[in-house]
Write a structure and sequence with these properties.
mainly alpha; about 0% strand; rod-shaped
């Protein structure tokens, strides 16, 4: 039972880490897109 609980906890931790990494990538991509848009607008004007 302890090994099963440990395995479930480890799976949950890896899943949460994957979700956090995906969310961080999405946020960083959005920030980079916003910075690129403002930079292109500044260069255009």
């Amino acid at each position: 039972f302890l090994s099963l609980a440990r395995r479930a906890a480890r799976a949950g931790a890896t899943r949460s880490a994957l979700v956090q990494r995906r969310f961080h990538l999405l946020v960083s991509a959005r920030c980079a897109a916003g910075a690129g848009a403002t930079r292109s607008v500044a260069l255009f004007f």
